[in-house]
Amino acid sequence: MSVNGIEGLGVGGAAFQPFSPPSVPTAGAGAASGTEFGEMVLDGLDRLDGVQKNADQLAVQAATGDLQNIHDYTIAATQAAVTTQVTVAVRNKAMEAFSEIMRMQV
Amino acid sequence: MSVPLYAGSDPVSAVLGFALDGLSTRQRTTADNLANLDTPGFRATAVDFESVLRSAIGQNAPGEGVVMANRLAGVTPETAETQTPIGPNGNNVDFRKETLSAMQSQFQYQMVARAVTDRFDLVTAVTRAV
Amino acid sequence: MGAFDVLRIAGSGLGMHQTWLDTLAHNIANANTVRSTADDAFQAQLLVAEADEEGGVRVAQIAEGSAEGRLVLAPDHPLADAEGYVRMPAMNMETQMTDLIVAQRGFQASAQVTSYAQDTYNTAMRIGQAR
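The joint structure predicted for all components is written out below.
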């Protein structure tokens, strides 16, 4: 819907643009097939491994006195903990879903 | 010689354990120095575990991550006399330097101890949820 | 460790101001030190500070004030020379007293920085805890 006359308003000389919500990219065709979910889980595990290794690296820096900022380590450690919890939760939900599907009477 | 607690654990735990030992030795030395602030002829000492730790880690192959625990088994922190000016009664304790060192090693100890706890918490989080 | 640079820098501030206070106290204590004209007068100590490239401050040098001092007529003084003169320090007491206040404020400022740094470190270490 267009509102006439409002184009004159603007910030810094730019014309007023009516708001349009950002478009959500549509999911790939045939998404949520078995292999894609499996890949997603493996990507998650890789990412978790990377996050944990990063936290270990910074912990060793703290031990040898090479750490530049305390928050570098604490943020990395929090990231590792939260990512671990998310990965475990995803795994648990996936197991529950699988068990429920197997229980279905055909 | 007794085997340190961290020998045989994974490399990162070994490094953190060694650092905690080194830091607590440093705190004891600082307390000793401060207690002898006015003792005639007393020479202050300082503990350095970071250099031995860095060189032990450095012997690693690139990409391997961290030193193996058994390389730390024979390693001990170095204690040396501090290079501070000697006063008229032969005492070289620098009050400000020792106080700042005490403050810093306390924070560093807290940080490494937190690192140890965080790593155990990760394992606990996984085992509890399964 | 780079993480604790603030402590080191604040420590250098504390050290420099402490030395400054020592020199001012030394000068003030000797404000009335009389010397004979055959010797140098009491020379006030003047502290010169310079910035450290890696952060902080250090004492560049401790300069000495005038060796001539002020010639004061005091014929009854045991150290007086043939004309009755003695040497007094060439020092401005007012400057020393104001410097004393400035030095003390500087010391307190660095001590305050140390306290703030400790709070900052504690906050940084609590990130992600108590979840």
